[in-house]
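pasting for ref
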Amino acid sequence: MKKVLVVRLSSLGDVILASSVLDPLYSEGYRVDFLTFKPFGELFSGDRRVNRVIQTDRKELSDISRIKEFARTLGSYDYIIDLHSNPRTFLLGLFSKGKVIRYRKNAIRRRIHIFPAGKKLLKQDLSFNVVNAYGEAIKRLGISHEKFRPSIIITEDEKSRVSQILPERFIAIGAGARYPNKAYPYFPQVSKLLTESGMDVVLVGSREDRSLDRDEYPKGVMDLRGELSLRESLAVISCAEACISNDSAVAHMARAVKTPVLMIYGATSPAFGFYPFPDEGSYIYKNLECQPCNLHGKKPCRFNTVDCLNIPPETVFQEALNLIKNSL
């Protein structure tokens, strides 16, 4: 049995998307170890597809000598599949024992979309998707697989435990985002429309998401942000009728547990390759001339309007209803 080490260090959403290679590798008989940063290894707790989860942190990989020392502890592999492709993982591959296969991250093409001339040249080019790029990497092993999708295995027992506190039918909302220009500001209004239509709403995300959100939500909205472990959050999302999320990890969590997701784009763009496939959900993107303005959505809006996120709550509400209807 051939041994492979899959490497994807961060962030949470990227690690979740990297799970798309596990089913193909497992079905082809590979023995898979997965290397990531703490605490993302929790994603694969009890996962039959993963022989060993190896967790590290930035301190252990903070310079060349530490990376070299850490690589020595990994042992030997037939293949090291680098799904991060940054200087740190390049050095890990260099110092490790095994043939390295790196995914092509299309970094230059992604950045071209930020500039008006580049956007005009490429238009709304959706030919690149990160999940497909991960799949292309393992195809170099001779693996033939028609459809790659992120997949995190949540057990029926995990679902049963969280279902005891959940409404019978609900929409999960991921209102948090790493940067303000990725955070849709009208989730309370969307929640109101949903509750008025008879649908319950459950907020999921981190403690930080909760602390940064100063909005007031309608009575009856269940706020579980910061109250759950990573796998418990995944279990909650897996029980939802659908999930509405910013361009953030919650959207990819929904994809990984097969819950239809509606993504809302602000400063970033689906052309960067993180959009859901049609069988996973849909997205809202205004496609303004100034969109996208930044690769990660870090920079403040140069017009001070953040018009890219000025999307009527009624639009999001209707799109969510359509998503549920089409998934039945």
